[in-house]
Amino acid sequence: MPYKDKRIAVIMPAYNAAKTLVACYEAIPKDWADVVILVDDASSDNTVDEARSLPIVVVRHDQNLGYGGNQKTCYKTAIKYGADVVVMVHPDHQYDPSFIPEMIRLIVDEGVAAVFGSRMMTPGGALAGGMPKWKYFVNILLTKIGNFVLGTRLTELHSGFRAYRTDIFREIDIERNSDSFVFDTQIIIQLVAHKIGIWEIPITTRYFKESSQVGFSQGIPYGLGILWSLFLYKTGLRKF
Ligand SMILES: Nc1nc2c(ncn2[C@@H]2O[C@H](COP(=O)(O)OP(=O)(O)OP(=O)(O)O)[C@@H](O)[C@H]2O)c(=O)[nH]1
Ligand SMILES: [Mg+2]
């Protein structure tokens, strides 16, 4: 019972993460997790073999669904294992799992439903941690647009380091969301639409060779997908 009788699942949506996932797993504070779940999105490297060498739950997709499709399986599996709280850690080791206890404490002690680790809260931190300049400026721009449309004051819309209380998945329907990276923004829109608060904590940024597969060319459909989702929300053309 890691924390005050709440069951905690750490989920890792994985795609070609063989080189980093063991280091990432080792950095997870184990006494804060009842179960660690890795969903492999039909990787072409040996992510699954690496994952099976660890004492974790491994789920495999037969075909690549994408980052959002991967998360859908992660949350379903976490709920199947009885999780009250779920923390997503990217197995590319981009995010530092040592922030997990702080996120869980906010959820359990303060009753917060969603906690995001933000790379943009510490001035200069994101660039110092190696975030590419174009990502940094696009991040700021899309975050400003997102805050304007949603009436939020988030410091970034794009972090993949997130903790959720699993009861929110009874209120919001994530199955309707995109299977791509836009999933992460659509969850934010759903939280706002359902008046569920989001807290942010500052986290360190770290970019290295294996930590990022999204290049400029995949960044464009991601950015457009975000704008499209915000448009659908604002105009009421789609209910979130
Ligand atoms: N690219 C990709 N990643 C996936 C997929 N399924 C799960 N993932 C995982 O999603 C995580 C995030 O993907 P990244 O390509 O690292 O995204 P990123 O470039 O770090 O994004 P930034 O933080 O904005 O730089 C990785 O840990 C992947 O293992 C998939 O189908 N495609
Ligand atoms: Mg990454």
TrEMBL record:
It comes from the Bacteria. SUPFAM superfamilies: Nucleotide-diphospho-sugar transferases. Residues 10-172 form the Glycosyltransferase 2-like domain. CDD domains: DPM_DPG-synthase_like (cd04179). It holds the Pfam family Glycos_transf_2. PANTHER family: RFBJ PROTEIN (PTHR48090:SF7), UNDECAPRENYL-PHOSPHATE 4-DEOXY-4-FORMAMIDO-L-ARABINOSE TRANSFERASE-RELATED (PTHR48090). This is Glycosyltransferase 2-like domain-containing protein. It comes from Candidatus Doudnabacteria bacterium RIFCSPHIGHO2_01_FULL_46_14.
